[in-house]
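S2.1 Query sequence (Phosphopantetheine adenylyltransferase)
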Amino acid sequence: MNRAIYPGSFDPVTNGHLDIIKRSAELFDELYVGVLNNTSKSPLFSVEERVNMLKEATAEIRNIKVVSFQGLLVDFVKEIDASVVVRGLRAITDFEYELQLAQTNHVLYPSVDTMFLTAKLEYSYLSSTIVREVASFGGDISKFVPDEVAKRMYEKYGIEDKNN
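Output structure tokens follow.
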């Protein structure tokens, strides 16, 4: 079986993330979407909330499993028996960082390869950080995230949903 993992924080999941997920799901028999539980960060959403939002947003894609993990990515790759790590790239600055991670992962676990997918132009500017900032000031994030995610973000910030 051809199995890959697309790891990330997904705090929150954006339309750019969903585009990479959909495109990756077409390339592999099984795609794990790994939600990192990074204890050194203070995310807006808990890992459980992020997993649930991703499950809702990807419900129509049959060959996806959304799970959380912590620790080294290569350890999780071994655990799920994946052979490829999928990473999205928006700009050249992403590539420099992602290349270092890919090379480190390959040194730690030579059986894993990293595949880079470039963001579609319409999502090349988009990041979870930008979405959180816009939402925190009550800005319209309807073009950046699925409606349910936008609703939950506004609730977190105590702001009335812009779509209602």
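Strands lie at 3-8, 30-36, 64-69, 84-89, 113-118. The longest helix spans residues 92-108.
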